[in-house]
Amino acid sequence: MTVDLYRKPAKSAALPPITPTAVAGFVAGLLEGFVIENNLSEIEKCANQASPLEADLAKVIADIEAKDWANAAEELVAIA
Question: What is the distance between the alpha carbons of residues 55 and 63, in angstroms, rounded to a whole number?
Answer without folding.
Answer: 12
